[in-house]
């Protein structure tokens, strides 16, 4: 399989290279805003070992030191959906927080199109689409849009062209700068109808648990 480039995020003099789903048998449990137990999101010295694909890390760029460090300093994701600008993969049209349909829960799935855990989750969600019709579901990635363009068609056909589902390209690294820096993919973020964070988790999870957390 071809190497997939993942953006390097540099802050406070430390390079944070992330982007590979892991085979960790104990992914982080779903966490609620009001009941967070606290866990370590440190990336220093963290190596991603993945047998299925190898991610080439781009060299650190000095200008990246000036990006916001809020996501690195904060263990939890931001409690409210922040202003953002992503881009619809197929059309290239910008998609911002102002475009989120009102009155619905919003789910962001930060993913890597080459990650088999991400593919498995997308496939499982697709088979349960009837339970997801009333939520906003967004697959977000910083990867090459060409790799993202066929993600749903290849692994989650039932989600293709659904009005509440989008695959979004994070060209400017808005997610890791404004939302959160996860340690593994897929990373799920569940926001309520008022845009407040309800729960989040990293890594793979049983589809029944996912549906419950998405819809409760």
From TrEMBL:
Compositional bias segments (type: Basic and acidic residues): 36-52
Coiled-coil ranges from the UniProt annotation: none
Any Pfam family: AhpC-TSA
Signal peptide: 1-25
InterPro entries: AhpC/TSA, Thioredoxin-like_sf, Thioredoxin_domain, Thioredoxin_ResA/DsbE_sf
The Thioredoxin domain, residue ranges: 75-216
Protein name as annotated: Redoxin domain-containing protein
């Amino acid at each position: 399989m071809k190497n997939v480039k993942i953006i390097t995020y540099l802050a406070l003099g430390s390079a944070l290279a992330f982007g590979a789903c892991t085979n960790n048998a104990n992914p982080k449990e779903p966490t609620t805003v009001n009941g967070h137990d606290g866990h370590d999101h440190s990336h220093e010295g963290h190596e991603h070992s993945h047998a299925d694909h190898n991610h080439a890390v781009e060299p650190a760029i000095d200008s990246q030191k000036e990006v916001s460090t809020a996501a690195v300093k904060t263990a939890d994701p931001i409690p409210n959906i922040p202003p953002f600008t992503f881009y619809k993969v197929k059309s290239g049209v910008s998609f911002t927080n102002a475009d989120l349909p009102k009155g619905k829960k919003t789910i962001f799935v930060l993913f890597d199109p080459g990650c088999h855990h991400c593919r498995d989750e997308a496939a499982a969600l697709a088979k349960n689409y009837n339970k997801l019709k009333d939520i906003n579901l967004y697959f977000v990635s910083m990867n090459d849009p060409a790799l993202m363009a066929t993600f749903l068609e290849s692994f989650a056909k039932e989600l293709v062209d659904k009005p509440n589902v989008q695959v979004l390209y994070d060209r400017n690294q808005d997610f890791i700068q404004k939302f959160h820096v996860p340690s593994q993919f897929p990373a799920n973020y569940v926001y309520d109808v008022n845009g407040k964070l309800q729960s989040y988790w990293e890594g793979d999870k049983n589809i029944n648990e996912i549906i419950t957390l998405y819809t409760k």
